[in-house]
Amino acid sequence: MGLSLPGLALAQQLYLSLKAHGEGNLGTQALILTLERLNNVTLQPSSAPSS
């Protein structure tokens, strides 16, 4: 098809970083771990307000 898919190239780079840190088995939802490392931050889960 000859399509340019830069978003997929970025996702692949992030996933390869996960694998390099031994976290490749965590799945694509773990891509945030790579973003945390790149930005030197640790995100905490937000607590949903009780209804």
Automatic annotation (TrEMBL):
Superkingdom to which the source organism belongs: Eukaryota
Protein name, per record: Putative 3-hydroxyisobutyrate dehydrogenase-like 1, mitochondrial
Q: Which gene encodes it?
A: VvCHDp000889_1
